[in-house]
Amino acid sequence: xxxxxxxxxxxxxxxxxxxxxxxxxxxxxxxxxxxxxxxxxxxxxxxxxxxxxxxxxxxxxxxxxxxxxxxxxxxxxxxxxxxx
Amino acid sequence: xxxxxxxxxxxxxxxxxxxxxxxxxxxxxxxxxxxxxxxxxxxxxxxxxxxxxxxxxxxxxxxxxxxxxxxxxxxxxxxxxxxxxxxxxxxxxxxxxxxxxxxxxxxxxxxxxxxxxxxxxxxxxxxxxxxxxxxxxxxxxxxxxxxxxxxxxxxxxxxxxxxxxxxxxxxxxxxxxxxxxxxxxxxxxxxxxxxxxxxxxxxxxxxxxxxxxxxxxxxxxxxxxxxxxxxxxxxxxxxxxxxxxxxxxxxxxxxxxxxxxxxxxxxxxxxxxxxxxxxxxxxxxxxxxxxxxxxxxxxxxxxxxxxxxxxxxxxxxxxxxxxxxxxxxxxxxxxxxxxxxxxxxxxxxxxxxxxxxxxxxxxxxxxxxxxxxxxxxxxxxxxxxxxxxxxxxxxxxxxxxxxxxxxxxxxxxxxxxxxxxxxxxxxxxxxxxxxxxxxxxxxxxxxxxxxxxxxxxxxxxxxxxxx
Lengths: 84, 467
What we know:
Number of strands of chain A: 5
Number of helices of chain A: 1
Structural class of chain B: mainly beta
Number of domains of chain A: 1
Number of domains of chain B: 3
Strand content of chain A: 25-35%
Oligomer: heterodimer
């Protein structure tokens, strides 16, 4: 959460392009993240894909959560990277 | 002259008046069941004053004034009528019941509290609301309008069934529960005395199969007799004579006799049999029926709404407080179509709506948009500082409606499944329900916390350190 901007400040604005982390990262995240909004196994299939940010939400504690157009699931900010 | 163009007694003193009892004459052609040895006493106008069981007193308008009463409001039952001959009040041993005639049907009131009500319903049935809307029944009628089966409206099941002799005597009545609806014969109710069905003009003694008073026009050979074809004809006004088997087709008796199947005089205004349906409003915000009610097919039905009732206790009080034009108190409301009103802020689980001639249930029916919800957002010291700078939560921020006030920081963090320290501060505040949207990942967290997302940038309260 809050890669560079701290809690409650999203890294990726709505409408911006992002790339989903690679499968290895997602698998690690799947196995290690035990808190809210756990990554679902089906989300691994989207590894490496690019998408547009549809919405940004803020969970308790300031965690930035994203939904992506055309991509199912809720995505933690750690699992995304920006596309220049 | 009456509406059937027959002479009334006062029009011609030479017409029948002042009948002295002639038992043979009285019972001749009078109905299916007779008690040949039963004593009868009548007034000079021919009204029965004693039938060996009950004593009847009549007023100067030949209306039944009391039954078994020597002092009204003290003993027996006494009756008050309006100018249409309808019963508007009865007292039984001092307990009063008022009868209200509404657009939807008849309502019986005890003071300001509805005791029970009859509302016209689809398929010629009648909805019965008993015990201040504690129970809701649907009365299934036969071709004559006799109440043959009563069932509970919500989670339908049969609570009673009964059969009728041709002249209205009830037999083979099976009751599954106490407090089930009263019987109705040809749509007529028993408002004065059990076993006696009331019309605006006369009272039908079902067990004796005849009227308690003669035909007001003194027409026919037996002025106490019910229609001779009671399996096909009904007499909702009490003005038929026994010879009428024509269904008034020749207009010889005006519209006195009617074919069966109607709801009787109170409920006969509209029986077009609209289908029963349930509003598909679950999860929707309904703050004004005029703008938001659709049927299950998506048809806009605002203009058809004319009645509503439902809820109990606090729900009923909420409805009373919030409906803009209630014409009845406590629980049941009647208003004309196109009346604008706001549903209650309290949230009844079920509201029954009268739409056209149908009755439907709305499972989501409150003024939810205006209702203030208490919610909580938890965060860490940095989050509290960041939000506290301007005092607003970002749109789409998660909140919970669960009460976290008694929880420790550790408990909150476990409950919301957040990192240690993220539950160090909480802010609890109120926001309109219309500002709460469903969480993208469902109504509950995986830890079981109830969750919503605020729709707009939302002002929060003070952040408080958790213990």
